[in-house]
Amino acid sequence: MKDKLEIKKINDYKWELVLNEDLQMKVPGIIFSDEDIIKYAEQEETLKQVANVATLPGIINASYAMPDIHYGYGFPIGGVAAFSLEDGIISPGGVGFDIACGVRLLRSDLEYKDIKNKLDLLMSEIFINVPKGIGTKGRIKLTEKEMVNIFKDGAIWAVKNGYGEEEDLNHIEENGKMEGAEPSNVSKEAIQRGFDQVGTLGSGNHFIEVQKVDEIYDEKIANIFGLFKEQIVIMIHSGSRGLGHQVCSDYLKMMQSASKKYNINIVDKQLACAPIDSPESKKYYSAMVCAANFAMANRECISYWIRIVFEKLFNKSYKKLGIDLIYDVSHNIARFENHIVNGKEQKVCVHRKGATRSFGPNSIELPKDFKNYGQPVIIPGDMGRYSYVLIGTKKAMTESFGSTCHGAGRLLSRTSAKKKVNGKQLKKELFDDKGIIVLADSMSGLSEEAPIAYKDVKNIVEIAQKAGLSNKVAKLIPLGVIKG
Amino acid sequence: MTNKINNNNNFKKFEVIEHLSDVMVQVYGRTLEELFENAAYAMFSIITDVESINKVVLEKAIIEVKQNIEIEDLLIIWLEKLLFLIETKNLIFSDFKIKNLIINENESKIDAVLKGEKINLQKHEFFLQIKAPTYHELKIIKDDNSGIYRTKIIFDV
Question: Which of A225, A240, B35, B148 is 20 to 30 A from A187 via CA?
Fold first, then answer.
């Protein structure tokens, strides 16, 4: 067999990337996709990246590609891989630079009619009150001791320091605090980068959106999640900021030498890794947990300031306004999870890079409120169209190690988008055509995030549903958008 | 290493290459030092209008690594150092002079002087924030004929 990639259709929404030993693949690839996206992925050499992940030691079953798969580096974006504890690896590149980048959705008791005349003011106030953290300091001044507390306690730190609610914690993955943090494994440089950054949004595709629930697909689950039609909700997309980026950078370097030390032949430097039980992997994981806890604290703080803006505008406490957290998910992370492998329950290390956990009913990780139903999955679309709330499924547990997509995936490069779209013009059009208020510091950055630069998330979410990975609960449409 | 040649204004420092999700550049240099300087310049061009950055603040950047690393590793460390300075000292730079670049089995060093200014959001529009330079397709090659060094760099944004 030569180094040509071969795809076989398993069904309309599931494709196999045939195991090719010449490419050193240890398992096949499994791609959840329709016919169109498969063709697109082929062009983009994305499939080669799926195949590269399949070369990693101890990988179980397959190298998975979610419906929003696209070309990244090392792991593709939308890649999922689970590794055996005995002979598997941990790879910082399988998590990404923005460790625990993720999304959360806050609900409210407000309806569109309650805010439509205040939308302008609401968005300006949020824009002013949530720092982007680029060229500006955050609002929270930290000491090194406090940084250590954030690393250990995650969102619990935010709640303890008055930036959130105890009830929020049940509605964050791992109850807002991942276990296994070891702050001494976070470099001084990473800590220094993080000092001014807790409670900052970041830039690129990070955002805050005030949205309206436009459509409900599953009344029962929507009710459980606290969603109803015309409701005002708030979506936040952010991560671990410079701290997380530095942790990844630090450990990618360590892993370059570790790969050599453990004789792991890596086909792409961004796949550098070490055995799970090696000192290098243990150090990385413990630092990754610190960054993940920082990210969850970050989103909790951002939520707090948004809540306060609503309080001031409506002259009512945010609790009385019903601004509660539905759920908070991370889509760049490695976790130790129990899954059924070859009929037996086994602990594995699941890497999700641009993929969301999508656990089905009765998963022990789920909070009491959702345990009988499944995990909320929050999927942001582009700023001009829609986003979705989904629910995890039992099928996902066996199809994809309990994983689904994380967003729309890009269609155009940033350079192409900048050529096609004028940021100021886009802002005006979104307002004139759809009444969407967009606030952004950089018009150039805004043009790169234009709706036409992204795939239609509706298709992605349909494929995820048809593949059995997650089911639609509600569609949300943007009313106001803040870009970092 | 040889001393840096004075910059010829016509020499192309870098160009942007299409990449779907992030930003890729191809950087050039007549010497390794110049390649590193131009990589820094390219990175700041992604972040903001680099030519609008006044050269009023001088900052030293010293990198020392006491182990055997590859030249590409050193380039990554250099660029990461600059990102670190942006976020911790609120500085952005438009001029990069590498006075000394050493790479050998036992240690690697960069001794550089940077010129720039404090970030001023009224003046500097931030196009993008760079998360990190990546190893993807990073390979420093010296052209056999022209002697020009080049490499691709993908920045995670």
Answer: B35
A484 lies within 8 A of chain B by CB: yes
User: Which site among A132, A266, A413 would you substitute to test the B interface, given the most B Cβ atoms closer than 10 Å to its Cβ?
Assistant: A413
List, as one string, the DSSP characters of B8-40.
Answer: PTTS--EEEE--SSSEEEEEEESSHHHHHHHHH
Chain B neighbors of A197, CB-CB under 8 A = 87
Contacts of A44 in chain B (CB under 8 A): 20
Domain boundaries defined on chain B: 14-156
Asked if CATH classification 3.55.10.10 holds for the domain at B14-156, the reply, yes or no, is yes
Domain boundaries, chain A: 132-199+239-298
Residue A276 pLDDT greater than 90, yes or no: yes
Q: Which residues of B touch A412 (CB under 8 A)?
A: 20
Flag whether residue B90 sits within 8 Å of chain A, measured between CB atoms: yes
With a threshold of 0.90, does the pTM exceed it? yes
The verdict on B58 touching A (C-beta cutoff 8 Å) is no
User: ipTM score here?
Assistant: 0.92
pLDDT tens by residue, B11-31: 999 999 988 888 999 999 999
Give pLDDT, residue B1.
Answer: 33
- pLDDT of A137 higher than 80: no
Question: Which chain B residue has its CA at the smallest distance from A412's CA?
Answer: B20
pLDDT digits (tens, 9 = 90+) for A55-67: 999 999 999 999 9
Contact A445 B16 (CB under 8 A): no
Q: Is A339 a catalytic residue?
A: no
- Over residues A143-153, the mean pLDDT reads 95
| Residue B90 with chain A: CB contacts under 8 Å | 135
Of the candidates B20, B125, B138, which has its C-beta nearest A413's C-beta?
B20
Residue B3 has pLDDT above 60, yes or no: no
